Amino acid sequence: MKQARFLWQQGTTTAVAPELASALQALGIDESLYPYAASLGLTDEASCQKFFAPTFADLNDPYLLSGMEKTIARLRQAIEQQEQILIYGDYDADGITSTTILKEALEMVGANVVYYLPNRFKDGYGPNQRVYQEFIDFGVQLIVTVDNGVSGHAAIDYANSRNVDVIVTDHHELPEELPQAYSIVHPRHPAGHYPFGQLAGCGVAFKVACALLEEIPSELLELVAIGTVADLVPLVDENRALVQLGLQQMQVTERLGLQALLQVAKVDLTQISEEDIGFQIAPRLNALGRMADASVGVELLSTFDLAEAESLAQLVDTTNQERKELVSNTFQNVVDLVDTEAPVIFAAHEAWHEGILGIVAGKLAQEYRKPTLIMTINPETQIAKGSGRSVGDFNLYEALKEVAPLFTAFGGHSMAAGFSLATTNLKAVEEQLAASFTAFAVKGPVQEELFVPFTLTNEQLTLEIYQQLQRFAPFGTEHPKPAVLLEKQHVTNVKNLGVNGAHLKLQVTGPKEAVDVLAFNKGSESFEFLSEQSMDLVVNLNLNQWNGAKKLQLMLVDYQVPEKEFFDYRGQKNRLPMLPKRTTYYLVFQKSNLKRLKLPPEQVLDLEALPQLLPSDNLIVADCPTSLAQLKTALKQTQATRIFLWCYSFEEAYLNGIPSRQKFAILFKFIKVTPNLDVRYKLAPLAKHLKLSESLLIFMIQVFFDLNFVTIENGVMNAAESVSQKELTASPSYQARFTQMKTEEFLLYASIPELNAWLATKEENHES
């Protein structure tokens, strides 16, 4: 049994209201997708129209935002009086696009505008008093924040003391006390009446631009789409409309920098989607703030010079490549440094780059399903600064708050945190976090919910169903790409792909031909797909285009095996998969094999301990039992549902067989004419002389000893003085070897389905 990584929440198949069914039918939506449409909140023709084909009319009035009238009046005053306006942004993709949007809008109406994106390492996030002072000294008379500012009390108070107004446009969580800004434009401001509170920073900046320009500037919508997707805000309601309209605008963009960026990212402008933004554009823009100067992003998106656009796009791409390499190396550094089976992943190092710690922490938390804190250490101050990421419903912020006095700086929310602390406090924080998560995990495995709206049969795996689902795009936060359940699949052609086999490619049956399934970062789990048991797959439907041909391709999201699994590693002593030590145990039937197998003692079980195993444990059958009845009894005693058949045989009884009567006769004659044979030291030359293996020679001597054909005293063997005639088969050793041969014959050569069938039977057909 393989447990799914996520907790699958399957969609219902309840009846759809006639109004919705009629609207969907008119739009050409397949009837099988009606329940999915209903689950998205669609109810009638009007809601379907807004969802599938929004227009400018579906965008909310910017003046519903609190503070908008006051903001526009102050901006127009500054423009009329040619005051110098500073746009103070942020160093991520949302901040870059927000800054570009407001910069271009102000330039359209003749404003005297400059911008500044803070340096992550030098300035930190949000309003910085030192930077404000430098720009005010330079002559700035009005400051407008984008994508930050609602928590910038100190810097804003300083600006006020210098008689410089600050307009805040932001979308982050509102503090209990708002700063004394000239005006605050925020979609969730308590004094406002805005109907949608989940705009990204770029969405708020766009609303200011719309109000300032007294129209909807369509050429800015592509920037809104980038920032909105990149900032992972809910892709519903107005955000969905903004992204859809922005993607349409992007297909005809005249931005030379965006064209150049898409070219280096190998994105087809005519087919651009939210996935291209999320996986190609956003990471490149975010890399600037993580590694260098985010202002390059604004220059790129707003340039009118083709040579500059191409040069900046290449710089952005190179920076992103450096970021990816750093992330990969740091991820591996952490894995090599820590015990990944510990309750939490907790690591700090002087060599790690501060800008990528959040990404690394997120990847580790996702990979190992446990809270992760990754830090870089300043060697001079011995202060560790880092990022944390959580999993499931575990509240990381509350857990760390228990030791808040140990931090020199600390903030975040349930799923993520940023902090700094003295290295002398690292151990205490780690112990507290481990204790909190251990107590939390006692309730059961940490699983995030995964909504699986519907199930498809293999006959439905066609390009047509993919194209139908794409009608519901763009997908994103709170409107994820629909996960599809494929039940009872027998996968084939499992292959590793990529550097070091990091990814997997496998196939499932399609209506006409096999359908490819790609499983990213599942390379180490290839053995899971080779157990021959049927499995349930949750996949996303995707399109594979190659040389003009289009083909359906599935992307693996999750999988489970609901029944007991057998993994076949028979005859592969040195090729067992990497399994977690804490949940993996070896069953050894013959104690004489313990030393030769060289197994970790703490992981070795005897038969009496088998009932203590849990269903989630891995049980490796290390050697061959003396009989099949012994194996069946063992496997029925344990709850473990993942059985790895190693079944190593040192004697290889089945392969070596039982020597012929002639061989026994030759050996007995030799014993008779060679008195006082010291079997402690003469076995090797004797075996060589008789052309036998040592193990077979020992077996034959044991048979003679059982039948009283020989005597052995103090290691010295002689033929018995009187020998009564007996059949060799009367020897217990002979009988045991015969049973061992039959056991090995079936256990080592039966197929996994045959073994499964045998376990299910009551009769011991293969035993003797």
Alpha-carbon Rg, integer: 35 Å
Poorly predicted parts: 764-768
> How far is the N terminus from the C terminus?
31 Å
> Helix segment count?
26
Strand content: 15-25%
Structural class: alpha/beta
- Sheet with most strands: strand arrangement: 13-14-18-19-17-16-15
CATH architecture of the largest domain: Alpha-Beta Complex
Total domain units = 5
Characterise this structure.
The protein has 768 residues and is α/β, with parallel strands linked by helices. It folds into five domains: 20-41 and 450-560, OB fold (Dihydrolipoamide Acetyltransferase, E2P); 57-319, inorganic pyrophosphatase (n-terminal core), CATH 3.90.1640.30; 344-441, Roll (Diaminopimelate Epimerase, Chain A, domain 1); 565-647, Oxidized Rhodanese, domain 1, CATH 3.40.250; 654-730, Winged helix-like DNA-binding domain superfamily/Winged helix DNA-binding domain (Arc Repressor Mutant, subunit A, Orthogonal Bundle). The chain has 26 helices and 27 strands. A seven-stranded mixed sheet has the order 13-14-18-19-17-16-15. A five-stranded parallel sheet has the order 3-2-4-5-6, sandwiched between helices. β7, α15 (357-368) and β8 form a beta-alpha-beta unit. α5 runs parallel beside α8 (201-213) and α5 packs across α13. The model is unreliable at 764-768 (pLDDT under 50).
Strand-helix topology:
Blueprint: E1 7-10, H1 18-26, H2 34-39, H3 45-52, H4 68-80, E2 84-88, H5 93-108, E3 112-116, H6 129-138, E4 142-146, H7 153-161, E5 165-169, E6 183-185, H8 201-213, H9 221-230, H10 237-250, H11 256-264, H12 274-291, H13 295-302, H14 306-337, E7 345-349, H15 357-368, E8 372-378, E9 383-389, H16 396-401, E10 407-412, E11 416-422, H17 426-441, E12 449-452, E13 454-455, H18 463-470, E14 484-489, E15 492-497, E16 503-508, E17 515-519, E18 535-546, E19 549-560, E20 565-568, E21 584-587, H19 594-597, E22 604-605, E23 618-623, H20 628-637, E24 642-648, H21 653-656, H22 661-673, E25 677-678, H23 683-690, H24 694-706, E26 710-713, E27 716-719, H25 732-749, H26 752-760
Parallel strand pairs: 1-12, 2-3, 2-4, 4-5, 5-6, 7-8, 13-14, 17-19, 20-24, 21-22, 21-23, 23-24
Antiparallel strand pairs: 8-9, 9-11, 10-11, 14-18, 15-16, 16-17, 18-19, 25-27, 26-27
Helix pairs in contact: 5-8, 5-9, 5-13, 6-7, 8-9, 9-10, 9-12, 11-13, 11-14, 12-14, 13-14, 14-15
